[in-house]
Amino acid sequence: MNRLAVDEARRRRRTFVAVTGIAGAGVLNASLRSEADSPRFYGLTLGVAAIWAGGGRASGRVHRGRGASEPRAVVAPVLLGAGAFAGFYLAALVARRIPMLNGPITRLLGYAHEGSAGLVLFTTLANGAAEEIFFRGAVYDVIGERKVLVSTALYSLTTIATRNPALVLASIVMGTIFGLQRRATGGVQAPILTHLTWSALMLRFMPPLFKD
Domain segments of the chain: what residues? Predict the structure, then answer.
């Protein structure tokens, strides 16, 4: 394949990634404007996951990472996800006393309070895995330089449409962690495992702190 063909393929992939990002951000915004525990909410949240995962896979090869089948490649990301949750839990103990943060977090966790536990867990984990396939897979691969910084910025940018500062802050912190994992391992398996562990623990233990 000559240089012109390579450049053209790269441009097409970047265009595809951009379209996927815009579509995903729009549906994400719509999902968080839907009534909790409604068919519309579950349909839209699963739609977001389908957009991220479908866009990530369709844009090109998604790499699992180096040594993905080794036990350490599974255990280390899971432990990191648990550690990230511990940090967020401690921060939440402070945030719930700050009205500017308490309100947005309470609204976000309202979907867990009011929704079906099984369906909320399923859609949360589906979106977590799909986000990594897209942002630490397709998006990361099309970026030329400063991959961690730019992929995290784009990841956070999609959450701005939700107008929920708590979600934006979380995306910046976790997006940086996921990006560094992708750089260190060369694939999406580690970020996916960390994301799923962190999300499951957040969903299980965070809502009681903001139930009122």
Answer: 3-210
